[in-house]
Backbone:
């Protein structure tokens, strides 16, 4: 049963994506049998001259499927395709084993805009759970579809949807001349609308979103030395932080956007510094002779966790953003690194080595329980969705590095295949 | 033991350097060319007459050294190589070198940057022990970002855990 569901999901997702030719192809490689059945009926657009540029219901259906918590019904199995409440016969949907039903239509709105209407029903109670009417332009329809997914997801799970978010990642492609081209790209969470924000012939690393999602800081080796840049996405303008001899790396924005934690080695070994964005000043936070790097902020902005090998092997430590003594956080295993907090601050996700394999694991900060979520050999760079439901990371697929996602309980897994080169270091954007 | 080694190396160096045009007096006489006749020196036993950094029989020709997993310690077989480079720098104050550290792909990227910097700094320290001045060497840390071998097994990883000595002017 589980396998059938899995295959059905896989097929529907692959077909819908290949038809439009997304830069990223998403495959669900592991689903859960407890996913909720939901029918998303194709939206009616009979009044729109020339039809719609996107299939809203398909986008919503794919979003819900990717979350692993929903099992959308195939269109071919629908007995009819209602677009108004009056046309809905709940018994039909009950007989198809559906819990919920989504219908909608797009009609001409004022000032040349479109009006997108949708309704979500509980099939058994026969009642509407939510419904919205959203104005849209033709070019914003994809975004509106993700917004509808967010509203449905929140209504049915109680958790805010993260379908309207984006991801940044690093790609590297070896050209015919043997030269490698590095890029940082930003795409919608479903892999569409890919935009390159920076291209370089030298390595690019460590993209970090500002809390408002309008800027990305990253490390660039242009000029053969590392520097940190902060780039405004809308304009493409960027600012180079003052750089120092040695490492300039691992930028991480504070939750209030006023500071960046980063790694410098100007005073000896790699240490964590706090950069004040407004004053443009640097304050040293750690003072060990060991490696201290990969800082991340607690959601309340009071603590920094980081990787340190002060005890001999890399482990996760935490300390107050105001300084003081660092406390060790991880004790299981001989390699724990690049930790970041879950959005609720209750867990951290990190790279955890077990039997020589590098995997993504979460650590429950209260119970101390380590949960290994992935089964790759070289899994890296975990990044939480802003609602905490999923974790993006990079993994090796055959010989290539690709992106993958796993639900924060480890039950749902998917691979995101990008055409072309190696893809790594995903960073999930904050909510819009 | 260490001093003995150092002595041998500096003796070796001075003999190879003496046979090389770049470091000795007038270029044309060093080349052995004057008045239409040409002679060629026999050197000190090796027939090498190019740049000392390229002399295949000199430890200076080795410009990449390799490291163990998670380690930034220089392995014994590379001590002579680094001693030779250090002595070469000490003898040539105008020469500078970039000490470029690298890591294999395992582990996290920014930790690997720091690990590769430790490797570069260990090498830098060994060079300065031989008399290289601080302004002659610069450590650069590239982490796992520039592998030379693309495989995903130990044979590639071994080649990628390295420090490269790059003489920009050479």
Residues:
């Amino acid at each position: 049963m589980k396998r059938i569901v899995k295959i059905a999901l896989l097929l529907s997702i692959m077909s819908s994506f290949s038809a439009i030719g997304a830069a990223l192809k998403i495959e669900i490689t592991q689903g859960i049998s407890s996913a909720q059945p939901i029918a998303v009926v194709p939206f009616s657009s009979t009044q729109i001259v020339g039809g719609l540029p996107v299939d809203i219901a398909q986008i919503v259906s794919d979003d819900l499927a990717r979350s692993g918590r929903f099992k959308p019904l195939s269109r071919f199995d629908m007995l009819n395709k209602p677009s108004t409440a009056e046309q809905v016969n709940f018994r039909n949907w009950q007989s198809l084993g559906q819990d919920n039903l989504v219908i909608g239509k797009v009609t001409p709105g004022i000032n040349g805009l479109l009006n997108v209407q949708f309704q979500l029903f509980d099939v058994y109670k026969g009642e509407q759970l939510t419904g919205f009417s959203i104005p849209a332009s033709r070019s914003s329809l994809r975004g509106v579809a993700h917004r509808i997914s967010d509203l449905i997801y929140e209504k049915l799970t109680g958790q805010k949807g993260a379908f309207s978010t984006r991801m940044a990642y690093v790609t590297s492609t070896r050209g015919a001349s043997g030269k490698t081209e590095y890029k940082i790209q930003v795409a919608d969470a479903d892999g569409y609308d890919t935009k390159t924000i920076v291209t370089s012939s030298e390595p690019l690393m460590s993209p970090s979103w500002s809390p408002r999602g309008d800027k990305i800081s990253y490390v660039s080796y242009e000029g053969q030395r590392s520097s940190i840049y902060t780039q405004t996405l809308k304009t493409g303008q960027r600012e180079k932080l003052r750089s120092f001899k040695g490492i300039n790396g691992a930028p991480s924005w504070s939750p209030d956007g006023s500071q960046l934690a980063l790694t410098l080695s100007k005073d000896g070994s790699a240490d964590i510094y706090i950069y004040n964005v407004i004053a443009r000043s640097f304050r040293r936070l750690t003072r060990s002779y060991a490696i201290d790097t990969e800082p991340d902020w607690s959601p309340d902005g009071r603590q920094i966790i980081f990787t340190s090998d002060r005890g001999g092997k890399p482990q996760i430590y935490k300390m107050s953003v105001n300084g003081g003594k660092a406390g060790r956080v991880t004790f299981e295993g001989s390699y724990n690194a690049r930790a970041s907090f879950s959005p609720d601050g209750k867990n951290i996700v990190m790279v955890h080595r077990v039997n020589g394999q590098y995997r993504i694991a979460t650590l429950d900060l209260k119970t101390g329980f380590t949960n290994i979520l992935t089964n790759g050999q070289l899994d890296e760079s975990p990044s939480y969705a802003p609602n905490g439901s999923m974790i993006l990371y990079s993994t090796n697929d055959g010989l290539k590095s690709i992106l993958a996602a796993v639900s924060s309980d480890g039950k749902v897994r998917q691979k995101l295949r990008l055409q072309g080169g190696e893809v790594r270091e995903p960073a999930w954007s904050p909510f819009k | 033991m260490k001093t003995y080694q150092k002595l041998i190396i500096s003796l070796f160096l001075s003999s190879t350097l003496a046979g090389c045009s770049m470091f000795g007096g007038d270029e044309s006489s060093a080349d052995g060319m004057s008045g239409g006749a040409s002679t060629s020196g026999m050197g000190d036993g090796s027939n090498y007459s190019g740049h000392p950094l390229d002399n295949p029989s000199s430890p200076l020709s080795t410009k990449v050294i390799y490291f163990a997993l998670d380690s930034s310690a220089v392995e014994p077989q590379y001590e002579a190589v680094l001693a030779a480079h250090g002595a070469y720098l000490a003898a040539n104050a105008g020469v500078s070198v970039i000490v470029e550290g690298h890591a294999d792909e395992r582990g996290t990227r920014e930790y690997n940057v720091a690990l590769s910097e430790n490797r570069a700094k260990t090498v830098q320290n060994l060079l300065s022990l031989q008399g290289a001045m601080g302004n002659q060497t610069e450590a650069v840390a590239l982490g796992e970002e520039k592998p030379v071998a693309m495989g995903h097994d130990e044979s590639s990883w071994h080649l990628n855990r390295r420090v490269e000595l790059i003489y920009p002017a050479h």
Notes: Chain B touches chain A at residues 70, 105-111, 113-115, 117-118, 138-143, 145-146, 150, 152 (CB under 8 Å). Chain B has five helices and six strands. The first strand of chain B starts at residue 33 and ends at 34. Residues 2-19+51-166 of chain B form a domain with the 60s Ribosomal Protein L30; Chain: A; fold (CATH 3.30.1330.60).
